[in-house]
Amino acid sequence: LSSNKNRFHDLLPFDQTRIKLVKSGSNASNDYINASGFDPLFASNSSFNIRPNLIPNFITTQLPNDIYDFWLMVIQQKCELIICMCKENEFDLNAKTNLPNYYFPIDKNVPLILSNLKINLQSTKETSYSIQRVLTVTIENNTRTVVLFQYLIGK
Known about the structure:
The protein is mainly β. The protein contains two helices and eight strands; from the N terminus they run ββαβαβββββ. The strands form two sheets. The protein has a five-stranded mixed β-sheet, with helices on one face. A three-stranded antiparallel β-sheet has the order 1-2-3.
């Protein structure tokens, strides 16, 4: 396991359910991200007594240490919704600006560019308990629209 990719070293994905990134070139062997997939079919075959057609596939992960790998996973796993349970004060601070290091853009005019990945903020809707951001994520010719829903409870 790549310890620098784990924000919390005591919270690790199970080998059976962890997401494996598909990379090429010199990074091809580094498929690790601290994220687990949940397969509804697995739950229906267990003691949970759940019908798979009622549960969407989803991924659980930590606040990303490696932002590029996080967005690569979003593209590769065809994620449509991200639910952020972190409070604003849980984001690491940028040493130069003393502002939070977000893993998503917060300004429509300033995309987040990470190597061959580009993330654009399309719209924002704020309520007293949440912020909903509609983003487009592009890598090469592949673009996905993703909704990032951030809870602000306990802020």
